[in-house]
Known about the structure:
Structural class of chain A: alpha/beta
Oligomer: homodimer
Largest interface: A-B, 30 and 30 residues
Shape of chain A: globular
Largest sheet of chain A: 7 strands, parallel
Number of strands of chain A: 14
Helix content of chain A: 25-40%
Strand order of the largest sheet of chain A: 3-2-1-4-5-6-11
Distance between the termini of chain A: 20 Å
Strand content of chain A: 15-25%
Amino acid sequence: VGRVLVTGASGFVGRAAVAALRARGHEVHGVARTVPADIEADAWHAADLLRPGAPAAIAADLRASHLLHLAWTTAHGRFWSDPANLAWVGATCALLEAFAEAGGSRAVVSGSCAQYTWDPAPSASAVLAEAGSPRIPATLYGTAKQASGELLETWAAGVGLSFAQALLFFPYGPYEEPGRLVPSVARSLLAGGEAPVSAGTQVRDFVHVEDCGAALAALLDSEASGAVNIGTGVGASVAEVATAVARLAGREDGLRLGALASSDGGTRVVADVGRLRDEVGFVPRHDLASGLCDAVDWWRSEGAGQRTRRR
Amino acid sequence: VGRVLVTGASGFVGRAAVAALRARGHEVHGVARTVPADIEADAWHAADLLRPGAPAAIAADLRASHLLHLAWTTAHGRFWSDPANLAWVGATCALLEAFAEAGGSRAVVSGSCAQYTWDPAPSASAVLAEAGSPRIPATLYGTAKQASGELLETWAAGVGLSFAQALLFFPYGPYEEPGRLVPSVARSLLAGGEAPVSAGTQVRDFVHVEDCGAALAALLDSEASGAVNIGTGVGASVAEVATAVARLAGREDGLRLGALASSDGGTRVVADVGRLRDEVGFVPRHDLASGLCDAVDWWRSEGAGQRTRRR
């Protein structure tokens, strides 16, 4: 138990991580550009980490023992090639340096499955492993996350900071950005409209955001170092997920599989969860069926104007 | 011809690059923590690029068309694992972003042959090629240079900035840090002492610093993008170089080959200069014999208290 500085704490994953860290007894200090009114933490700090000097000031002020750095450019659809990925690498270097300087002992930063090479013709059971699978990212976002992860891992070993990078697979659930797969299908169908999606042959490791937050909290409390996958180890095609969401919404009639073109020729992006299970001791609470049920319920209550306050 | 911002301009390589850029007709703005009294440039600017906000301020003030970013931690022996490598990645991100923002069109940053994997058992004619040779750096310095190079290359393509990273091999010559191979052997022997070195079986691509500076200037004026080796393409063992220096100093008697232990089991680090020659159009002026002759002459005049002012 320690004092944890969480950046990106008001975001989709940050919100879940803050709840999980508090449940584990940590003193949680959330950092966000705008302090959110509806997320409980021990303290909130308003800061734009891209402002020169801001990362160093926050770290020096708080003198946290633990750091969970989730802030990054995340605008849906745009973050893959957002030039601001460069500035986030710079801000991340400044933050980690100042955190170590201020006496911090354990840091986890968010990475992504986009750091791996996505094989267009994988075997049907292929999983991506931290130690063995190639990481030649196809995007600026993946390149920036990979560059910062490799750099920080080597640097941290030199300064004696315990460090891990969480490679997040595909979180979904409450508070997700509405343009993404699960919310877009659920909201269209729940509102009585149609939901056009691609043929959806690509396979992904979808992880409920509460499990994602809980895994991050467990990883921060562990001594696992280097890259650690955050996923379920189970793959599902986009078509399967869309169909399950449509069924849960009671609107299988409105789903239009194949109505949108896809540039993905059937990649499979599924986590090897060996490190998460064995070294962190984390097992997800949700399987895909229960997770999607929870998510569709949440979007239903959102649509009915009843914002849930479960955290 | 344009307005060139040169960082690290008072350093060993920077000094030679400033001279070469001026010879090509550029308006050269040198940046250094302390403005040097003995290097001519069109203007000098004192700045510590590790201070938050400093890179952005310099770039916004100067609105240069070209950037040659050489500043980095370079303290002899210590830079390999200096924790400040992290801060230099952050400062580099901030500088490049602000340079592009201010309308800059062409940037070259210094990288290193330390970004390559150094094979302990290479073939006798092996060269390291930008496109084909693996780059898994063994040090924090190499990791930081490699991470920033990959990141900047991808980012620059997205924002339309012409970008290259110069992978410097082993510069030697006037103004070199006295603890390094050529100066340490030359100075000891010229002063009448002994020069203990290792067995010196490792092979390196030694490039005269004037050629290094001229190659950087030519690279900045070219459109070559991505990683470009800066070397001669010719390897020489450390023993050969030390012996040549001893001979030029007239003191072969003082050389103690094998007196120091070496942790290097005979690596060979020699540049493939195909890109430098064909895409940049650069060929070195010095071969090793003429370059070492020049260097030993310079150290001789230094030792006699006659500082040369050749630039």
